[in-house]
Amino acid sequence: MPSKPSKPSARTLARHPALTAGGILVTLVLALALLSLLWTPYDPTHVDAAQRLLPPGGGHVLGTDQFGRDVASRLMTGARTTVFVGVVAVGFAVVIGVPMGIAAGMSGGPLSALLMRVSDFLLAFPALLLAIMLAAVYGTSTLTAMVAIGIASAPGFARVARAATLRVMAAEYVDAARLARRTRAAIAVRHVLPNIRDVVIVQVSVAFATAVLAEAALSYLGLGTPPPTPSWGRMLLDSQELLFSRPELCLWPGLAVAAAVMGLNLLGDGLRDRFDPTLEGVR
């Protein structure tokens, strides 16, 4: 089997500024989400009409919204909601897409074609359409958003895993495993999975960025996380009527979504360059 890349060092990170910048942004978002589990300045769902629309500063760092809720607390809790939805949705997509891609790459022939047609069928249903369909049947909920995003992301993992598996199956060490009468399951676990890990990790960062955007969009449209649970998309929806009088209420969740997506995309580019140096500098 080919040698695995060494762990990132300070020199490696200096050669990959996108990896460093993306890692910092993603770490900040994760830290904000984890901190919200233990502490927030105020109860993010507490309504206080006497404190409504306070400007940033004083006891409320980012001010309050039209219901008197602390914006900073809601932003922190929204990070937790976004990370939770993203992790579950992407994990769901990995569980569905990666085994499908590996099976298609290892089998070939009619089975591979069938699995890829199933992937194409899933690809035809974007997360928004799936969320509308699921919401009509099961009602609006965080689970609905997670399942819709996960199903919509699975075809990407299937295609990436299949392409990487085809390259692995052409390697000599796989031929040696076949001559040693290793089963397909053993080849998949021992040889395929370790050697497609890097491309799957890169796809995870890309899919996570897509999931952040999808969750925000679904919440904005009322198809994602229902109130009173804070989410960045819901904050954008609640603040749109105050866009011209209090634009900062739209600015904070918008910047949070932009920072998370940019960080994940930069992290994905950096990981791609790290795992495949031949692509470094190629765009």
From TrEMBL:
Assign the protein's first listed, main location to one coarse class: membrane
Gene3D superfamilies assigned to the protein according to its UniProt record, in alphabetical order: MetI-like
The GO annotation for biological process reads: transmembrane transport
Q: Does the keyword DNA-binding apply?
A: no
Query: What's the family?
Result: Belongs to the binding-protein-dependent transport system permease family.
- What is the name attached to this protein's record? ABC transporter permease
Superkingdom of origin: Bacteria
